[in-house]
Design brief:
This protein has about 450 residues and is α/β, with parallel strands linked by helices. It folds into two domains: about 115-325, Aspartate Aminotransferase, domain 2; about 330-435, Alpha-Beta Complex (Aspartate Aminotransferase, domain 1), CATH 3.90.1150. Helix content is about 35%, strand content about 15%. It is built from 14 helices and 13 strands. It has a seven-stranded mixed β-sheet, with helices on both faces. Helix 9 links the parallel strand 5 and strand 6 (about 235-240). Residues about 1-30 have low confidence and may be disordered. This is Aminotransferase class V-fold PLP-dependent enzyme. One of its GO terms (molecular function) is transaminase activity. Pfam families: Aminotran_5 (PF00266). Keywords: Aminotransferase, Pyridoxal phosphate, Transferase.
Length: about 450
């Protein structure tokens, strides 16, 4: 980016009159977030078979831990790198919104909100960009207005640790009665719904329910819409953790039926690290407190519900490119492809006598993430030993997950960069190691 005219010319303009300096954004050449040299990302222009070609992957390993965050495709990484350079050069000239026109953070922040809204099918004013899915969900939970001391709040053992912490915080800091329950094993649609029905029935004072669309621990997909409706019929609000569902499943916000949703844009949307999203239905905005008296943003803006502070501008600037990439593949195609990769390795190990798959065969209840438990893997130490064995001996990266009521599991998450060879390597490793504790 060429910051012309020269410093001498700028000073001269300032001496003649301040408005001359700010006559137009083009006068000083601010081109934050300009397109990269990559070709246009047209909807449905990338076949799923070509997905791995769009990623630069560390060789020598089979990385099946895409559940942490999603690797950026090359086009997004390039947009992010360029935005980093541009923001660094323009600095506060850009971030302080002193220029007219489009070369301002305010304009680009709204563009990121609009892109996310387009992706999930809601109004741009119902979306706030956050630093992560945890950031969004913690603000929704902690600042939910509908609680008084003694009211019940409910969560499940398969919910995410940071969200569990936030729900427990409602007990220690707001006097809520915190109720935890365990997801049944094996989980089916019928017994998942029965478990939620049971906990709601035995918690008549419940006011708030946390529901995770896809468990980060096991990969189980819950029937969110039915659970939300069940809770609403009892006067209970639901906050939906969609961190592993948005942009992996062919889903829109309205499919949840919920008023409050948070997720990580740096997961399956493949945006840069440090990006998340908060959804509040427009009619329910007043039911979430302003974050820490965030008075410098109008109270009728969802952005007032996000904690104040400088964000990574360049990461947010790359969000529209990431969402264009999402549409270039297509949500339905992504979902089918990722379920296929998962099915490929599971089908090869399903009959091993020492391997327990933690999700049912029902395609509505799983997608990319699927955890397993080996016979005898009954402690965190043994789960960690399995993770080490798979990586050190077979060069397959997985991750152990604690917190499941019946014991730890090993989570397997192929990414959009993954190939059949990656999941086949896992299958071979499990065929060799499944009896390590038997």
């Amino acid at each position: 980016m060429n910051l012309a005219p020269s410093r001498r010319q700028l000073l001269k303009s300032a001496a003649v009159g301040g408005p001359a300096l700010l006559a137009s954004s083009q006068a000083i050449g601010v081109t934050i977030g300009a397109p990269t040299s990559q070709p246009a990302l047209e909807p449905h222009s990338i076949p799923v078979a070509d997905l791995p070609k769009h990623f630069d992957v560390e060789p020598g390993y089979h990385n099946l831990e895409a559940g942490y965050w999603s690797m950026m495709p090359r086009v997004v990484a390039e947009a992010f790198a360029k935005a980093n350079v541009d923001v660094n050069r323009a600095s506060s000239i850009y971030a302080r919104n002193v220029l007219p026109g489009d070369a301002t953070w305010t304009h680009d922040g709204r563009a990121a909100q609009a892109a996310i809204a387009r992706q999930v099918g809601c109004l741009p004013e119902e979306i706030a960009v956050t630093r992560s899915g945890s950031d969004a969900l913690q603000m929704l939970i902690a600042n939910y207005k509908g609680l008084k001391p003694g009211d019940g709040v409910i969560y499940c053992d398969l919910d995410y640790d940071a969200m569990i912490g936030a729900m427990e915080w409602l007990g220690t800091h707001k006097g809520a009665q915190v109720v935890r329950f365990a997801m049944p094993e094996p989980a089916t649609t019928a017994n998942i719904l029965a478990a939620y029905h049971d906990v709601l029935t035995r918690t008549p004072n419940a006011k708030l329910l946390l529901v995770t669309q896809i468990s980060n621990r096991t990969g189980l997909i819950t029937p969110v819409r039915e659970i939300v409706a069940m809770a609403r019929a009892r006067g209970v609000d639901t906050i939906v953790d969609a961190a592993h569902g948005i942009a992996l499943l062919d889903v829109q916000i309205d499919d949840f039926g919920a008023d409050f949703v948070g997720w990580s844009v740096h997961k399956w949307t493949s945006a840069p690290l440090g990006t998340g999203a908060m959804y509040i239905r427009k009619s329910r905005l007043a039911d979430i407190e302003i974050a820490f008296e965030n008075a410098h943003i109008p109270a009728d803006s969802i952005n007032a519900r996000v904690a104040a502070g400088t964000i990574n501008f360049a990461a947010a600037l790359a969000i529209p490119t990431a969402i264009n990439f999402h549409f270039a593949v297509g949500a339905a195609a992504k979902e089918k492809h990722m379920r296929g990769l998962r099915d490929r390795w599971v089908s090869q190990v399903r009959d091993l006598r020492n391997v327990e798959i933690m999700v049912p065969d029902d395609p509505a209840r799983y997608c990319a993430i699927t955890s397993f438990r080996l016979k005898g893997m009954n402690s965190d130490e043994r789960a960690q030993a399995v993770q080490r064995r798979l990586f050190e001996k077979h060069r397959v990266l997985t991750i152990w997950r604690a917190g499941v009521a019946k014991g730890p599991v090993i989570r397997v998450t192929p990414g959009f960069y993954s190939t059949a060879a990656d999941v086949d390597a896992l299958a071979r490793a499990l065929q060799a190691e499944h009896a390590m504790f038997a």
